[in-house]
Amino acid sequence: PGRMIDLLAANAGRVTNLRRVTYVVLDEADRMFDMGFEPQVMRILGNVRPQRQTVLFSATFPRNMEALARKTLAKPVEIIVGGKSVVAPEITQIVEVRNQDTKFVRLLALLGELYADDKNEDARALIFVDRQEAADGLLRDLMHKGYPCMSIHGGKDQVDRDSTIDDFKAGVFPILIATSVAARGLDVKQLKLVVNYDAPNHLEDYVHRAGRTGRAGNTGTAVTFLTEDQERYSVDISKALKQSGQPVPEPVQKLVNSFMEKVKAGKEKASGSGFGGKGLERLDQERDAARNRERKTYKTGEEGEEEEREEKKDKKDDLFSKAASAVQATATPAPTPGVPKSIDLDGKITVHKTEKPTPTSTSTNNPLDKVGSAVADIHARLNKAGVMRSGVPIDNKGPDAGAFHATLEINDFPQKARWAVTNRTNVAKILEATGTSITTKGSFYPAGKEPQPGENPKLYILVEGDTELVVTNAMRELMRLLKEGTLAAADSESRAPTTGRY
């Protein structure tokens, strides 16, 4: 997603855009909203036209990921084929509890049984391990036994991974050793055997690994090796067997019972869901923390300048956070930049349905009556010109008014914040992204001054659109720009030089 965002942002969005995209498909959607991708995926979807159809596919969808994905959808329809997080009935599942030193011998026996049958001459086998080193080590051992095979994992370049998968599909080699990077998206028709050499650590990973075989009505076999010390993983594997209607072997059930007793006694914690990516920022934080630990461990006395720079940076970050918190805590409109108390930029956005004027039926065609009615209408509007209820503008009832509208008062925000939501470039981007109409209305009043009866209301923005969703999206973007402008104003205010030249 990051590369796509770079392409969309190149040359101020003039290289390419998604305004003509009407059909969006997210495959393996549960992982796309996890693993730190969620902010990037949301940014890409925010650049697609609102009148689109969005389709999400996945064999597994945990509840927390489903709730996150529904934020991108409007009145979604859910279609479940077979079952959610369930292994297909065409797949024979075998789970064996054995020692670590017997797993390789058992793997050779499984491969020998597979290729001993002439019908399986063109069959493929996929072996899953948990680490990159284990993949390369197993590759070396199988090559010594005369089995042509290759391995793929996250430590290899994308080009190498793509070429390896193409060769595997074409039958250049019949056996592929992989980490969980190959658990999703791999579709090989001749794949008859999947071996979980190292047990998967959560339910969804097991379902996707087993789902590499038995595709499109074909049959297949999924064999999983469990060791005595992997009783934590036995809970999810037994759950997958029960959900797919297959019996749980007695040794596996013993591991499950043993682990659950430890959980009840407080000696162990229940296994996690396998989801919960913290975002790409987490990687930077971990790198910085490791760097600080190394600096303290191998201190030589010559890093004073670098530490001083780090301290200055920390102080600067503290000042910025204090300024941001001060801006958010501003109580009343004042000359200092801040968010007005009456406006909550993080609150719920209220969108109103526009009331279309009902044509008044007149029993007479007298022109004087029509003129009198028009004058009375003008007087009524002038009398309430200085009064503006939140979300109900005074002049959006004409024939061109949108079906839904919302208002955002910007009069009491700092000048930088007002400029951020009224300059032509930012407004044009929001118009293109949402298809709404954005109009600046009212008059600007300095701090402490209120509009008198008969005067225009305070400066505000009117957002109109055909649907409630597009108006909400436009309002959310305007609020984001207001917040950024307010923080920028507070930052520049705190860094403003003192008066005097020297």
Automatic annotation (TrEMBL):
Ranges of compositional bias, category Basic and acidic residues: 279-302, 310-320
Record-annotated Helicase C-terminal domain positions: 110-256
KW Coiled coil (keyword) present: no
Region (Disordered) residue spans: 266-344, 351-370
Pfam families with a match to the protein in the record: DEAD (PF00270), Helicase_C (PF00271), KH_12 (PF23469)
Any GO BP: RNA splicing
GO molecular function: ATP binding; hydrolase activity; nucleic acid binding; RNA helicase activity
Positions of the Helicase ATP-binding domain: 1-79
Reactions catalysed: ATP + H2O = ADP + phosphate + H(+)
SMART domains referenced in this protein's UniProt entry, alphabetically: HELICc
Domain of life: Eukaryota
Bias (Low complexity) ranges: 323-333, 357-367
Top-level EC class as recorded in UniProt: hydrolase
Keywords: ATP-binding, Helicase, Hydrolase, mRNA processing, mRNA splicing, Nucleotide-binding
Known EC number: 3.6.4.13
Family indicated by similarity: Belongs to the DEAD box helicase family. DDX46/PRP5 subfamily.
Function: ATP-dependent RNA helicase involved spliceosome assembly and in nuclear splicing. Catalyzes an ATP-dependent conformational change of U2 snRNP. Bridges U1 and U2 snRNPs and enables stable U2 snRNP association with intron RNA.
The protein's name in its UniProt record: Pre-mRNA-processing ATP-dependent RNA helicase PRP5
Classification of source organism: Eukaryota, Fungi, Dikarya, Ascomycota, Pezizomycotina
Gene label: PRP5
